[in-house]
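A reminder from the course coordinator: this example appears on the midterm review sheet, so study it carefully.

Given structure:
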């Protein structure tokens, strides 16, 4: 399935160049183009494209304001900002308002193609997650291994994912294995939401601790181990991305388990050899995706 694009830029030459690049790449179709933010917002709400390429500075309404208004009105497509502006605060504000990538003017075909392919990949992975969630509703009717055989199956699947992420040797990997076993055992509870992290940590601690004080204390230790392990996964993927941006593991796992902006920031810090930064990670997203992928692999 190809992507649909709308281009919003007051420069007609830029609009034509971007349209030609998108169509030449074969990633999708440009279903509309507008010369200003107000016109563009109206077109976007009507057509609901998958991706919007939008200029930062326009005479009637700037790109950041347009994006903010569109999000308030429920549009959830992806945004790529285009601008000559180099001001870091302005670029940071654009990212805070939800853009996926930033393309510099004058337009460089190689840069545009690279960004479009990455946005396309991220879109595919997000659809993959949606499909997994939809398939969970059908899981009850599928015969899966039970008892000891199921536990062994979960453990093998989780270990393989941990190895792919390069964290099988981290201290928190054992906690993740226990969490996935617990979650899979609980999956028969109809329409159960993914539990709060505190509840998960306590469930793992309860498997080998008994008193309330011991469980609470161990839960905090588990939380620290998990955070360190997830940060290690981010670091490993960022390192792979710096070496080979097209590495299959990087392309698959980085946007699936982490917010791509966080991966990019980690890569930038490593590339510029600045003081070590632990990096931002969304622990709940990481564990939730891990659980969904485990279930999907079990079904397969």
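Designed residues:
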């Amino acid at each position: 399935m190809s992507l649909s694009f709308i281009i919003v830029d007051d420069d007609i030459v830029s609009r034509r160049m971007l349209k030609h690049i998108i169509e030449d790449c074969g990633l999708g179709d440009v279903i509309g183009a507008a010369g200003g933010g107000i016109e563009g917002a109206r077109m976007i709400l009507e057509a609901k494209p998958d991706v919007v390429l939008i200029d930062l500075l326009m005479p009637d309404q700037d790109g950041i304001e347009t994006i903010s208004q569109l999000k308030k009105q429920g549009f959830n497509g992806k945004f790529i900002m285009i601008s000559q502006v180099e001001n870091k605060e302005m670029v940071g504000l654009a990212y805070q308002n939800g853009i996926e990538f930033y393309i510099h003017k004058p337009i460089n075909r190689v840069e545009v193609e690279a960004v479009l392919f990455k946005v396309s990949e991220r879109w595919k992975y997000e659809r993959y997650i949606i499909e997994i969630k939809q398939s969970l509703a059908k899981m009850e009717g599928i015969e899966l291994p039970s008892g000891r055989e199921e536990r062994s199956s979960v453990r093998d699947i989780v270990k393989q994912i941990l190895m792919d992420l390069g964290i099988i040797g981290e201290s928190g990997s054992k906690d993740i294995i226990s969490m996935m076993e617990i979650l899979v055992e609980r999956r028969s509870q109809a329409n159960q939401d993914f539990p709060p992290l505190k509840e998960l940590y306590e469930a793992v601690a309860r498997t080998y601790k008994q008193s309330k004080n011991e469980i609470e204390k161990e839960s905090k230790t588990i939380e620290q181990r998990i955070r360190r392990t997830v940060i290690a996964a981010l670091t490993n993927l960022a390192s792979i991305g710096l070496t080979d941006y097209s590495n299959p593991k990087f392309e698959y796992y980085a946007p699936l388990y982490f917010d791509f902006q966080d991966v990019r920031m980690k890569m930038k810090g490593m590339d510029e050899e600045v003081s070590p930064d632990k990096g931002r990670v969304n622990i709940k997203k990481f564990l939730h995706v891990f659980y969904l992928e485990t279930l999907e692999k079990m079904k397969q």
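The chain has two domains: 3-133, 141-299. Strands lie at 3-8, 28-34, 51-55, 78-83, 99-104.
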